[in-house]
Amino acid sequence: MRKMAEKNRKYDIVILGASGFTGKYVLREALKFLNTPGSPLKALAIAGRDQKKLSETLSWASTESAIPTPDIPIIIVDTGSRCSVFEMASQARVVLNCVGPFRLHGEPVVRACVETGCDYLDICGEPEFMERVEAVYHNEALEKGSLVICGCGFDSIPAELGLMFNSRQWVSPKEALNKVEAYLSLESDMKLVGNFGTYESAVLGIANAHELINWRKTRPRRPRPQIPGPPPQKGPTLEHQKGLGLWAVKLPSADAGVVRRTLSALTKNPSGLPGVNESPDYITRREKFWATVKPAHFGVKIANKSLLATLRHITIGIFIGLLGTSSWGRSLLLKFPSIFTLGWFNKKGPNEDEVNSASFKMWFVGQGFKDKSSKAGLENRVPDTEIITRIMGPESGYIATPIILVQSALITLSQRRNFPKGGVFSPGIVFGPTDLQERLQQNGISFDFISRRSLSSRE
C-alpha cells in the first residue's frame, strides 16, 4: 500500500521554507546529493510563500554549490492555507519543514503530512510543539503511514547520538552508567551571531512555559528506564567544569526532553522499534545496537572558557525570563533583540564570514560505576568512573543543522522499510541504529572518545 502511494508522489523531498534563514542552507546541502551516484534523492522541490525569493534562493544555492542552476519546481505554499499545504504534502515522500516558530506555523504542516501519508522531518527545538504533535497526531500518523520526527537538526540529534555514543563506551557488562551531562560550547574566530527565528522561538517558549508544565500534567506518565544509582543532586547555578576548563550554566533547550522521550520509548521497546518491512540484516543491527545503549539521567549546559561569556548567557536568560512573561515585555524583546541579547541575536542574522568562522563542541561527561554487582548496592553510592566523549563540527544553525537534516532525510528515503509504518517519534529511537552517525562523520561532524578515569569519593 505504501509503495503504491509513494509511486504517485512527484518529489522525494520538498523543502518548506527554503528561502528562510536556515532553509536556504538546507537547500544548498540537499543539492549536493541530488541525482548523485548512490543517492536516493532524484526529485527535489522547494516551497514557500514568495516565488521571487525562492527563485533567488535557488540561484544562490546553486552558485554556492558550484553547479548550474537546476530545474527545480517551486511550490507556492502558505501555512495559513490548508489547501496549499495539503497539495504540497500530497506530492512529497518527505517534507523538510524549516518554517518557525513551529508553535505558530508548524501544526498545519504536520496535519497535512499525516492526512496524506507523507513523512515529515523538521528542525524544531520547541518542546511544547513536539509533545503536542506526539499526543495529537501519533495514532492517526500510525494509521495513515506517516512518519513524523521533530527535532532533526542541531536540536536534538547531536544530544541524542552523543548520549548513545557515550553510553556505548561503557562496554563491560559489569559497568553501569548513571548520568551524562552535556556541555555545549559555541565558538567563533569572529563574533557569534544567532538566527532571529531561534531567538523568537526561545522568547515564545519562555512566555508559554506554564502551558508546557500544565500540558504534561494532563498526559499519561511515560515509562521511565531503570537507571542504576541515585538521581543526580541539583548542582550550583554556575558550574566550573575544571576537567574541561569550562564555565557552564543550565541550557533550557529541548534536548533533555527529547532524550527522555527516546529512553521512554526504549523502555517500552528494549530492542527498538520494529520496521514495517525490515530486512533481516537490519533487524540484527537494530537489536545489537540497542543492547549496547545504557540509559542515564541527562542534562545540557551552555559552556564557555570565559567566565565573563557565561555571565553574559545568564544575563540574557534573566532578560528573557523577566520580560518574556508579559506581552509588552515580549514586544520589547522581539523589537530589540540585539540589545537584550547583548549583540548575540539580530534580525539580519549572521553574514557568510560569521557563519563560516563558527563551530561547536559538545562534551558528554558520563559518570557511573565500574562494578554494578557490588554487594553494597548502588543507591547510596556516588559514581566511581567517568568517561568523556565529544561531538565537534561546523557552525550549529546554518551548517551543522542542514547536514543533520539532509542526512536524516536521505536515510528516511533509502531505509524507509526498516522504520515503523508511521507514528510520531523522537529522532533517537528511529535513527539510533542506522548509519546516521557514520554519515555525519563523513560530512564534517566528528564523534570522539576523549578519556576515562576513576573518580574519588569527593568528586
Give me the secondary-structure topology:
Layout: H1 2-7, E1 11-16, H2 23-31, E2 44-48, H3 51-64, E3 74-76, H4 82-90, E4 92-97, H5 102-105, H6 107-116, E5 119-122, H7 127-144, E6 147-149, H8 157-167, E7 176-188, H9 196-207, H10 209-218, E8 238-241, E9 246-250, H11 255-268, H12 280-291, E10 297-304, H13 307-323, H14 327-335, H15 337-340, H16 352-357, E11 358-369, E12 385-394, H17 396-414, E13 423-425, H18 427-431, H19 436-442, E14 446-454
Parallel strand pairs: 1-2, 1-4, 2-3, 4-5, 5-6, 6-13, 7-10
Antiparallel strand pairs: 7-11, 8-9, 9-10, 11-12, 12-14
Strand content: 15-25%
Please give the order of strands in the largest beta sheet: 3-2-1-4-5-6-13
| Biggest sheet statistics | 7 strands, parallel
How would the global form be characterised? globular
Oligomeric state, counting identical vs distinct chains: single chain
Structural class: alpha/beta
Number of helices: 19
Low-confidence residue ranges: none
* Termini gap: 57 Å
Number of DSSP E strands: 14
Tell me roughly what share of residues is in helical segments.
Answer: 40-55%
Round the Cα radius of gyration to an integer and report it: 22 Å
Summed over residues and divided by their number, the pLDDT gives a mean of 93
